[in-house]
Amino acid sequence: MKGLELARRYYEEYGAKMLHEQFPQYEGIAACGLAGSGSECFGFDDEVSQDHDFEPGFCIWIPEETVIDSREAFRLERAYAKLPKEYEGFSRGLLAPAGGPRHGVMRVSEFLESRIGRKDTDLSIAEWFTVPEYALAEAVNGEIFRDDSGIMTGVREALHNMPEDVRLKKLAGSLVMMGQSGRYNYPRCIAHGESGAAQLAVGEFVKHSMHAVFLINMEYMPYYKWSFRAMRRLGLLSELADGMELLLTADNSKENAERKRDVIDEISHEIIEALKMLELTKQTCDDLGNHADSVNNMIRDNNIRNEDILAAV
């Protein structure tokens, strides 16, 4: 059973009843669901994932102390702790996992601070540039089971909307790094006989190409170990994942190096075509650097546009 399904069923069978019977005054104020750290919050969990931090449980997000004070929050925590310890063959852990509790009662501000480093969604432009996108992904993943007041739904909507100028700056930087690492440095490293350095160049190319694909899809790239799974679910350019995987896993023999150069060109070309289709570039050439400049020139804010093109990398 997938973790999100387990969480929903556990909530519907026990959590909803507990809130209705013991805390009816908070049913329409608190939000319940599952989001945050863990592969189950993305829907990427499998049997291997069940070897640690996998349990029946869900989150109860509550507002600030002026609405639900610490005494009432403690009562909620105690009631949650008394829910069945066994469900569908899975047991709730006795100790909190690394990074703190992933389930149970938590204030919205505490949840946000643990993810993005601040207690609200009013990020400055500088913070939009510096908060890791995997952290933003963890703040908006999973599912909301009930949220009558919109306390978490509004938070997720606010964080999912990265300012367009920030997206364009990040995209421009990724395009520059793609051209530098893949089209320029990889063949040079091969020509120097530096297979290890060539593979590092390939790794940089894949990382920045994948980032560009997520930005094009207006989605956050999650933690690296889930990036391929997440990319294969995207609407645009998901098919490029296979070529990226080949770049990372094939060695740099003469035959493979030639194939890798072709794959780098194919990935670059497809990303450029997507930029043209979405009218994110005005260039018609096949040069990543020129397209990076074109994307950067579309930024409306003068200060952001005039920053170094790699400012967001």
Write the layout of secondary structure elements.
Blueprint: H1 3-22, E1 31-34, H2 39-42, E2 59-62, H3 70-81, E3 86-87, E4 90-91, E5 104-107, H4 108-116, H5 125-130, H6 133-140, E6 143-146, H7 153-160, H8 164-191, H9 195-216, H10 227-231, H11 240-249, H12 254-277, H13 288-297, H14 302-306
Parallel strand pairs: 2-5
Antiparallel strand pairs: 1-2, 1-6, 3-4
Helix pairs in contact: 4-6, 6-7, 8-9, 8-12, 8-13, 9-11, 9-12, 11-12
Describe this structure in words.
The structure is a single chain. By secondary structure, the protein is of the alpha+beta class. It has two domains: 3-160, no CATH class; 164-306. Helix content is 55%, strand content 6%. It has helices at residues 3-22, 39-42, 70-81, 108-116, 125-130, 133-140, 153-160, 164-191, 195-216, 227-231, 240-249, 254-277, 288-297, 302-306, and strands at 31-34, 59-62, 86-87, 90-91, 104-107, 143-146. The strands form two sheets. Strands 5-2-1-6 form a four-stranded mixed beta sheet. The protein has a two-stranded antiparallel sheet with strand order 3-4. Helix 9 (195-216) packs parallel to helix 12 (254-277). The longest helix is centred in the middle third of the chain and has 28 residues, at 164-191. The two termini are 38 Å apart. The relative contact order is 0.11. The mean pLDDT is 93.
